[in-house]
Amino acid sequence: MRIRRTLSPAAAALCPADLWKGFEGFFAGERYLKKVEEELREYLGVRYAWFTSSGKAALYIILRALRSLKADRSEVLIPAYTCFSVPSAIVRAGLEVALCDIDAASLDFDSVLLPKSITEKTLCVVPSHLFGIPSAVESIMDICRDRGVFVLEDAAQAMGARRGAKMLGTIGDAGFYSLGRGKPVTCGSGGIIVTNSDAIARAVDRELSPLPLPGKARQAREYIKVAVMSLFIRPRLYSLPAALPFLHLGRTVFDTRFPVMRFSSMQAGLCMTWRRRLEAAMSVRRRQAEMFRLAIDAVRIPGNTSSATYLRLPYMTESRECRLRIFSSAKKKGLGITGMYPSPINEIPRIAHRFAGSAFPAARLVADRLITLPLHQYVRDGDRDEIARLLAPARPGETLSQIRRAERTMPGIAGREGA
Ligand SMILES: Cc1ncc(COP(=O)(O)O)c(C=O)c1O
Predict the structure, then answer these.
(1) Best substitution site from 56, 62, 76, 340 to test ligand 1's pocket, by max atoms within 8 Å of Cβ?
(2) Which top CATH class is 16-208?
(3) pTM, rounded to two decimals
């Protein structure tokens, strides 16, 4: 195996001081958890916030809570292109997955199809702020309100991003975030539930209180994983874990057997500096996205607005073949370009039978053509140049000089590893 500089697709940094806080967390009891919950409520401007073992556990808990409020409704309407964890949590909650196709330009629901996809069995609609691109939650709320349908925001990838004055995840009836690897803030794994509704909060509390806390052995294993990840996420070492297929890095799977637990005090310790980390990472990602916008064909970036806070930069290639060509060159050069979800949700083998005869062409197109570009602090000037060249081989000279000019007016963008 050759060790060579390789970028990870996403990287939320944890420094030794963060790891030390996690270690302290083992002995902190409820203290750290209470502190981060309170800080988070204040930051997001919500009345209720709870931490859980993962984003999918958070989704599962909210779905069960919503079902307890509307027992006669069993369908959950989601975008046909989203993370496989979403249908996994729905099936685990004993509910049915319903799909609506997306708009390939925004990755949000297709606004014409959405009202037609809601039925009298719909319990909730789950708009997803994929990559941090804001979904049009307010108009979805308008459609759902009259029909007694909840809106549950999937803000797994969008913590800290806003739509106007409001934080994504806090606009609908309830929302959730992920603290998993590669998310805006990570502690290895974790999730957050938020709501402003008293009735939903009571129902969530009923679901959460009987859940077990992870045992000390599980916490110790998680801690070691996080510590190792924080080291190997660096470009100088990332080629090692990236070459180990059993780690399944970056793979999205449909699996209903995930743990549903409360958040441990160790995880709360790892989150003690969440706000500083989130804001620092968002500012780097915004600048990186800005630089990419100048260097590549910006009309190919879904949801492209300068106000978007992307987690990774999505980019629609011209064709499936073009996408494969880019992957293969990027892999050789260690540029951190990856795909996102391998297929639309209706093609997941374990649930495909439910959607026989239905087509979701925009979701299919996005699955075929979408790639993501890394935006984290380890991406250097030269990496962006290489990526831009790979995406737009016909006019590299022009775009690169544009980048250089813009960079001079944008101090602070990472030119060094780890900056
Ligand atoms: C859009 C989306 N929803 C839900 C999840 C589930 O979060 P977690 O991995 O923390 O379970 C993810 C995580 O990858 C996600 O990207």
Answers:
(1) 56
(2) alpha beta
(3) 0.92
